[in-house]
Every structure is written in C-alpha cells, then in structure tokens.
Amino acid sequence: MKKILISAIIILSLGSCSKFLDEEMQGIYTSQTFYKTDDHAELALTAAYQPMAFSSINNSLWVFGDVASDDAIKGGNPGDQSEIEFIEQFTYTRDNGFLLNIWKRYYEGISRSNDVIHRLGDGISEDVRNRVLAEAKFLRAYYYFNLVNIFGEIPLKLQPAYNTDELHIGVSSVDAIYQQIVDDLTEAATQIPESNAIQSGRATKAAAYGLLAKVELFRENYEACLTAIGSLETNGSFALENIYSNNFKWLTQQNQEIVFAVQHLSGQDPFAGNVLNQWFAPQHENGYFFNAPVQAFVDAFEKTPEDVYDPRLDYTLAREGSKWINGEDYDPSWSPTGYTLRKHQQPLEEIPVGTKGDSDLHYAYMRYAEVLLMKAEALNELNRTSEALDPLNTVRKRARESYLYDENLDGFGAIPEGLLPDIITANQNELRELIRNERRVELGFEFHRFFDLMRYGKTYAESKLSGTSFNYDEHRYFQIPQNELDINLNIN
C-alpha cells in the first residue's frame, strides 16, 4: 500500500506544478461564477424561499403568534422547552434561544433575497430576471414584516454585505421598515405573474397585493388597504371553500381560498417536511403536544341556545366528546389544557408515527377569509359600517353552512337554528369588537393572534394578557437577542 501511495505522489509531482495550482476548483460555485443563467436564478430564488418553511424548530413563528397570545400555553411536558414558557409569561431574557432562532432564520431569508436582488448577472433572460427579482422582493417583505412585528426597530439590510461594516448596521425605525416593505411589495406586484406556473407555492401577483393589504391594515392606512384588496380580487379568482377544514388537509390544501401558502413535502433529501405535525401532536403518536389551546379561546366561539358550537371550533381543535383526526375518541388527558390542535396535523394513515416530524402539510399564511375580514375592518374604521357587514357575514355564512356540505357533522343537511346569524349592528364600536373576535376564531392557530393584540393597542392587549407579566410599554416588542447585541455594536 505504501508503494502505491508513493507512486501516486511521484506521478502527480511530474506534472506542471504551476498548471496544477492554477486549476479552478471543479463543482464549486462562488458569487462570481453563480447567478449567470436562468437556472442559477431559479436555484437562488428557491433558496430564498426555504427559511419560511417550518422544516425545523428554528422557524418558531407559532411561539410568537400563538403561545405569546391569549389563545395558547406552551403545552408539552413540564420543563420541556422551558424557554417557550418564559415567552408565554413575558419573563424571558435576551439570551432566550427562541428569540435568536427566529432572528437568524428570517435574516437568513433576507440575506438570500438580497443576494438574488443584487447579484443576478447579464446572462439571465429578461422575463426570468423580472419575475425572480419580484419574487425576491416579496420574500424580503415577508421576512421583514414578521421581524418588525416581533422585534420593532431592527437593522434594515437591503443589499449583500461585502464587509463587516455593511454586515453590522444600526436599527431603523418601525415606520422606515414598513415603508420599505410597502415599496418592495408595490414593485413586486407589477412583475409577478397572476398565476405563477413555474412551481407550486411561488408568490403570485395576488399574494403580493394580499400581503400589501395586511401591511397597510397594520399601519392603519385603511384606504390603501382597500385599494390593495381591490387589486388582489382583480388579479386572482378566490372564493371560500365550502368546508372550512379543507384548508388544513393534505388532499384539499391547494384550493381556491389560498392566497399564499408555505409549501412542504415529506420524504425528501434534503429534508423539506413540516415538523409542526410532531410538535403539536399528542405523545402517544410520538408528538410533543406543544401549543395547547386554552379555555379562553374555546369561549370565543359562539354557540346556539341548544349548545351547538360554531363548527370552526371542532375543525380547529379536539376536545372531550369529539373525535381525534384518526377517528378514535379524543382523550382530554392528551393535553395539559384538555384541548389539542387539529390544524397542522395529519392522520397516521398519511404520516405514520415513525416519520411524524416529516409532514407535507402546507402552512396557509393567507386565506381569502382573512382578506374578507381585512376588508370588513378597513371599511368599519373608515366609518363605512354598513358596507363592512357584507364581507364579515360572508365569512360567517361559510362557517354555518358547513352543515350543508360536511357529511361528518352531526346534524348534516340542516343548519342548526340560531347558529352564527348575520351581524346587523350599525354601531362602529360594536362592529369593531365583533370583527376582532371573528378574526380570532376564523384564523385561530394560524399564528396571527399576538400580532393582532399588539396592533389593537395597550388597553386591549393588557386586558387579554392579564394572566401574565405582560406590560404593553415594556413588551410591545420582543427584545433583540443578546447574541446580536454582542456581535453588532452598532445597535445601541
């Protein structure tokens, strides 16, 4: 063996040393050799989409959207992932790992989006360039929208960092970040196709307008919100599914109601599945039973005098007396609150115990139901209360008419008397509260609730989170992770 190795070394040394050392590495791309072709552009864009996926616990949007709200507690075994409980109770410190995880995850998405926006070379066709740039701006807006709502004032990075000075910059105001998001989405909407046929799950023109509408709603720019919704409805054919739960099932999750969804696919290498199927599942299914719904969320659902609940309750969670997703009777002991999420979970016939954390359920970030509720809210805030009733009641109508379409509901074929009647109030303040509650039950456990509480203001937020250490002036935004403060001295 030694003789073979020595002979190989001698043979290599007989060649031209200078030619050998000057040979470029094969199979390795750099920023100088990549971004040159249409295929390169598509690959770079695909990488920019990846951080929004729930392919690891590092994307913990549910912790901030659900557990930090009044809808859920951490769940799980006592002491397991205790950092989530500190966030739930607002007793966390800057070294909390979940703060750092989501910070790094979404800034990675921003960095990859910036690479796409600034590095595309001359060899890329004009059509591909325009679309890819537009999608990258949509993605950058999505990541910044989540980050600014979690952390408030944060560094606004709009190009690749070529040195450490550009890598570590100070924070920008919330208004400046929102304005950049609006600019990105406005530009994206002009170039993204109405129907993005390149790949399932890619952003469309309607998705850009949908996110723009939400941004403007959060900024209380209600006329601009309505304008964006009008553009969405012009550039997409959306309607509510007859059965609410179709939005959260594998066979029916790609449907007419989905404006934008984060895609997952099981059985892939590299991993592309959805881990939430395991994080929220009961223990006997190899789950961790986190993000446990609480009684206050259940109490937000309307019921008839005969105690027939809004069917969205049992579509969202399992409770005593109901069936679990596999068809067996639900056992309240599976959860510390007595309730377990049905959303984000697949039955064992689709994803067995052995691969529980590799789900192919998508995350429906925006549904047309939310668009209708945004329209209702914007109209009401503009004192157009009578106009706001129609989109609000359209959402309620779909919910109660589940009894006309879902054969699995007890009493299928007839709507229970008094269930979810149309709202008729002409009082703006009353309608505001009704719209807020409708958002809560319609969008429950889709990771929006905490951010709604914050935008509703100090009095509302503190009343809903009174059982925790929450103080609006102190906790309106989460603290920037300590790790970021340690490496970025430009953050004061």
Outline the structure in words.
With 492 residues, the protein is mainly α. Among the domains are: 34-203, Serine Threonine Protein Phosphatase 5, Tetratricopeptide repeat; 264-361, no CATH class. It contains 22 helices and eight strands. The protein has helices at 2-14, 17-22, 38-49, 61-67, 82-89, 97-119, 126-151, 164-167, 174-191, 205-218, 222-234, 276-279, 295-299, 312-316, 368-381, 385-400, 402-405, 428-442, 449-456, 458-464, 472-475, 482-487; strands at 72-75, 154-155, 171-172, 258-262, 290-293, 317-318, 340-341, 363-367. The strands form four sheets. It has a two-stranded antiparallel sheet. The chain has a two-stranded antiparallel ribbon with strand order 2-3. Helix 3 (38-49) packs antiparallel against helix 6 (97-119). The longest helix is centred in the first third of the chain and has 26 residues, at 126-151. It is globular, with a radius of gyration of 25 Å.
Report the uncertain regions.
1-25
Overall SS class: mainly alpha
| Total number of strands | 8
Provide the helix percentage: 40-55%
| Biggest pleated-sheet summary | 2 strands, antiparallel
Radius of gyration: 25 Å
Kindly report the average pLDDT value. 93
The third-level CATH topology of the domain at 34-203 is Serine Threonine Protein Phosphatase 5, Tetratricopeptide repeat
Q: Could you give the order of strands across the largest sheet?
A: 1-5
Q: Calculate the terminal CA-CA distance, rounded to whole Å.
A: 61 Å
| Range of strand content | 5-15%
Instruction: Provide a count of the helices.
Output: 22
Assign the CATH architecture of the domain at 34-203. Answer: Alpha Horseshoe
* Form type: globular
Which CATH class of the domain at 34-203 applies here? Mainly Alpha
Order of helix and strand elements from N to C terminus: HHHHEHHHEHEHHHEHEHHEEEHHHHHHHH
